[in-house]
Amino acid sequence: xxxxxxxxxxxxxxxxxxxxxxxxxxxxxxxxxxxxxxxxxxxxxxxxxxxxxxxxxxxxxxxxxxxxxxxxxxxxxxxxxxxxxxxxxxxxxxxxxxxxxxxxxxxxxxxxxxxxxxxxxxxxxxxxxxxxxxxxxxxxxxxxxxxxxxxxxxxxxxxxxxx
Length: 163
Hints:
Blueprint: E1 2-9, E2 12-19, H1 24-31, E3 50-53, E4 56-59, E5 72-74, H2 87-94, H3 104-117, H4 123-129, H5 141-155
Parallel strand pairs: 1-5
Antiparallel strand pairs: 1-2, 3-4, 3-5
Helix pairs in contact: 2-5
C-alpha cells in the first residue's frame, strides 16, 4: 500500500509516494541519495542511522518514512552551514574523534540533540548521551573530547559582522 508523504530534509521539501513499510533510512539514502546516513545494524543498536526529526535524534532504521510525514529532518549533509563546519564536525576533526568515520554522522547527529538540551555536559553525561551510538574503532576518549570541544565552542559568543 502506497501513501503520499511530504518531508522537509535539510531545508528542502520532498513529496513522494512510498510504500507504508519503507524505512526512513532507505527513503533518505535510496530515494534522495543522501548517503551520509549510514545503515549499520537495522535494529537500532548501533546508531549509525541517527538523524534529527523536528530537532530530536531518532534512529532512522526503525522509523517508517510515513511516520515522518510533515516533519522537518536534518541529516549530516545539512549540518554545515554556509560552507562552515558545525562545531561538532570541527570538534571531531580537531580532537581526532573519528577513525573509519562510519559512526561519525550518527554520533554527530546524536550529539547535536544532546548539546541542544545540555550546553555544558559532564564527561559522564556525554558518555551516557552517546551510549546508544556504537563506535567499533575508537575507545570513545577522543569522541568525548570532540563533544567537549564543541560544547565550549558553542558556548562562546559569536562574532557578528559590522555594517
